[in-house]
Amino acid sequence: MDSLLTVKNLNVSFNTYAGEVKAVRGVSFDLGVKEALAMVGESGCGKTVTSKAVMRLLSRSGGIIKEGSRIEFMGQDILGLSTRELNRIRGSKMSMIFQDSMTSLNPTMTIGNQIMENIFTHEKTTRQKARERAIELLKLVEIPNPETRLKNYPHQLSGGMRQRVMIAIALALNPSLLIADEPTTALDVTIQAQLMDLLRSLKERFSMSVILVTHDLGVVADFADKVQVMYAGTIVERGTVDEIFDSPRHPYTWALLSSIPGRAQESKSKLYSLQGTPPDLLLPLQQCPFAPRCQYCMPICKKAIPKENFLTDTHGVACWLQHPMAPKVTPPAGIGGYDHE
Amino acid sequence: MSKQPLFEIKNLKRYFPAKGGKTVKAVDDVTFDIFPGETFSLVGESGCGKTTCGRTILGVYPKTSGSILYEGEETAKMSKAQLRQFRRRNQMIFQDPYSCLDPRMTIGTIIQEGMNVHFKRTPAQRNEKVTELLFKVGLTADFASRFPHELSGGQRQRIGIARALAMEPDFIVCDEPIAALDVSIQAQVINLMIDLQQEMGLTYLFISHDLSMVRHISDRIGVMYLGSLVELSPTAPLYEKPLHPYTQALFSAIPDVHRGKKEQRIHLQGEIPSPINPPSGCKFSSRCPYAQDRCHEEAPALRELEKDHFVTCHLAAQL
Question: How many helices and strands, by DSSP H and E, does chain A display?
Fold first, then answer.
């Protein structure tokens, strides 16, 4: 598969009063054409920062992409582009939808104007043509009565509708890459299911690649081709959906999967819960970041950072348990391929 | 269950006035019982009235009509002294652990505030009690002198629980207690809640839209749609065989990590109608894939289709 996006050794830091917070630490990944990649992890693991770095949206929040990081999109070096060149790509070739549609849309503009704004920014076209395009886009995202909806303001729409408008804006110029940052977190399950179905069909129809940032593993299992599990700014495990859900290898992935109550699990029994808190991102990494919370922790884990070990072409795990000298451990029951009721 | 219910809610209605003389029927004719020691859950999409229902039961909102019996006694007719006890014994945990704690109070003060109104204790006894409560929710004594901003979301939610427990309640309304938390923290808080229930014999009204968590924690579940209860059942039969078309659609939309077998997802058309102007007849008729003429005209009543399994649908038996 051709690679659309290549991220190599991405390091992002924020300067705070307490010191330099290293939010993303040496993340590398590839995204192929028409692929759906999911980034999962707890809050603060760097998944959103990584996706924003790809769009170069970090400067305003104080994020600094460190020297040596590389982001290539369609063969272009994103980090070397000027703001003007970036603006030509952002919103047209790659676009992003955010979690909170109420704060992402402009409350003082009709949704029609907001969709058209994006079209005018990138194309020389007449108002009439842009309006037709906006109606077409609203139809595409399955909003009923698009002609009248164009004149609505964001507050007149429900949360699910607003999220659809955001998708319409993002798709206005047929992007090759769509980054969806927790697109359904604020929504109800039924609306979430509708939206994920919509995203899936649009992805096929426009041959888009999608990066889905989420902490909802259920959504990931349904949507993604590839998954990368992030912890403390690093990727601890990556693989295809089947690899991650059927034969996960990293204790952190196990912990994430087992904290969701399974169908087979007895009611009111103890849910698996991960003890402790994620490491302080102010400190340099000298051990496996997960070691202090890992129940399989070995002496080596506290001494050296595990290298990513590829079990297949796609399935990578950064864990000392994968070392040939490590003891064999069985993952907790109830996850992966070990139990389906 | 043959026990005397803790709460008997009959035909409860709570309307809010809206612009132009209209009314929002947030809770519209809801009837159910809550038994001591159980976890009763209300589920449904946002805007279905589950939070309003919980708050009305506790008297946070006055009811519009209907009756709420607490241990057989009408709450609206309680004397001041009885109400005082009622409010102590019935507590609430909120969704947002950030806005429900006063940022200018220490954790110790927050936990003590309500408790000091009801219990006569010396300052030393109070501090001792605070320490005991902090231990109970899995924190240490030194948290008492900290401020809310020093705590993580999960820790704050524990403070919310400790504050409720300080009143020595028997009933707690848990309004989306885990919605704002990370998955791994969610599991911790749920474990804590289950432990406390078993230890202290608490009764929970658990309000949530996280259907897998609800399945884990609940004894009985009420499914709400547009202010009405559409299905009421013990947990296991509800998840095995939901009877109402809305429940079926809701459950089929749960994203599932256990991908062994995939059930067909039921697609609902459109979004929830406005509670100002709900559809005539059955409220779900405008989105129901099975709706017939009768459904648009006549509102179905809650009926017991199987033992303890109630449903509000004309067609549920045939589906």
Answer: 11, 13
